[in-house]
Amino acid sequence: MGNQHTEIDDSLRPFIEAQRIFFVATAPLDAGGHVNLSPKGLDTLRILGSTKVAYLDHVGSGSETIAHLKENGRIVLMWCALDGPPTILRLHGRGEVLTPHDAEFKQLRPLFPAKPDECRALIVVTVQRIATSCGFGVPLYRFERERSQMPDWAERLGADGLREYGPGLKTRPYSRSRSTGIADPHGPSRAPRGHSRDRDRVLA
What we know:
The chain is of the alpha+beta class. The protein contains 4 helices and 8 strands.
């Protein structure tokens, strides 16, 4: 049976904190655009309040989530129990992108592990709808370990290499939805005006 909740209460918080993986979905306003779904791990999420959560957005091969949030703010986070009692939890809400330039980023960043340190943004979600469902169709899995590739890769590149990697030639210059991502992870987080090639360059 599905249920709705008014807040992340004492029954939901332990479930969220026990999960090793969660999923993030966003979409552009354009009906012809692609819905984006990303898995997240590496101890990247924190509960900030009864209706607020935040997660670290690491450097990766795309910038769809950030681009969609800057366009329309819509986001849903999902957890599903891969061991123990079957449960699915979804948090629907509005997401805000904070980059290292932002004061709130600097306040929240110490809540998360210091490594890997290639975080390009913090996504803060104000939750508007909290829903659980049975999860009877989700298979059982056994957790083995976190993958080491992300922190190892970030350590090899170093801070200067990561800054170069972001806006550099190794990345795709636009999101798949042609929306604006991050032009510079250490610059202002607000979306720029206009859509010139330079301004639409995203950190992927």
